Amino acid sequence: MDTATAAREVFVTGLKNAHAMENQALSIMQPQLNRLENYPELSAMLDQHIRETEGQLTRLEEILDSLSEKASGLKDTMLSASGAMAALTHSAAPDEVVKNSLANFAFEHFEIAAYRSLITTAELAGMQSALPLLEQNLDEERRMAERIDQSLAPTTERFVMLKASGQRADI
């Protein structure tokens, strides 16, 4: 197998994995958004990123369609289920909002790494038309990671203050 053929196979697999990853992200963020009560800035940030993630899925589907490929229903289902389970697990934590912030920060960096790898395989496979779409997804993930990073201290401070005042602080 030549390099271009191998790169195309790796690229298509990576696209399917990224599609499942973005579905997983939605299954993590939506329950968080539905439960947030005391963190309006965090709520607005998640709401915006859910819309961005929906756009990312559309862009990934566009690339897959251009290659006459489809997303993997099995991967999408499995990762969505694992994301929903992670969200459920954190909902039982007494510091749910802090735990979610930490997990979201880590997940955004996983997505950044996935898109950087996809961009590399697109270049190796000669899929230049996919690059602007993948770079847009990467840029959105980088911005979200930065917003989460900037919100970690204020979220933690708000959590402690609400807890100290006897108010519900976890969501």
From TrEMBL:
<dbReference type="InterPro" id="IPR012347">
    <property type="entry name" value="Ferritin-like"/>
</dbReference>
<dbReference type="InterPro" id="IPR010287">
    <property type="entry name" value="DUF892_YciF-like"/>
</dbReference>
<feature type="coiled-coil region">
    <location>
        <begin position="50"/>
        <end position="77"/>
    </location>
</feature>
<dbReference type="Pfam" id="PF05974">
    <property type="entry name" value="DUF892"/>
</dbReference>
<protein>
    <submittedName>
        <fullName>Ferritin-like metal-binding protein YciE</fullName>
    </submittedName>
</protein>
<dbReference type="InterPro" id="IPR047114">
    <property type="entry name" value="YciF"/>
</dbReference>
<dbReference type="InterPro" id="IPR009078">
    <property type="entry name" value="Ferritin-like_SF"/>
</dbReference>
<keyword id="KW-0175">Coiled coil</keyword>
